[in-house]
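Attaching the record inline, Q. Sequence:
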Amino acid sequence: MKKYVWFSVIAIILFTGCRKLVLRDVDTNIADQHCSNYVFDADELGLDCGGADCAACVQTTLPCTLSQNEFEFYNGWSLSNLTFSNQALDTSTGFWTFTAETSSTNYIVIRFNNKPDVTKVYAGEYDSFNVSDDEVYIIYYQPSSSDKIGSGSVYINYNAGAYTISSCDYDFHTWGGGSPPLTQTFSVTF
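Structure, as predicted:
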């Protein structure tokens, strides 16, 4: 009878010890699972990188030097330097929509289909309804001289809890209008 009791006690200890070990192994691998699943998820800033659990992302590098929260815009005659204010991010519609004012009536809207990936360079797209995951729709609302759309390379960086969206070669022009003769740039932090 004593052998049976001792055997039962040892079996319970071994079973309980192994069970805790398995649970502990699962808990420590949660971060590894979402950081290597080839899905842009959780708090990642790029595919399986960034955020609290994953390795840092290699962010895109802007090929020019721009001042933060400035917009060099061709107004039809010359370049104008505008400053952004009242930056906001809205994700309530499923899109990631960034808005910033250059004055009380003029503002820029930058819309991504999903959370921006800091490892990508996005291409500007004219059609707000057909934006792919590698594209961004940007429009500059300027009631005094017609709204402007455009195309160009758009870079995303994330630092200290804020996104900076920039371009060294954006082509803002009226719908159906020709490209401006001067390069336009912008950099805005949200």
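Helices lie at 2-28, 30-34. Residues 70-189 form one domain.

More tomorrow.
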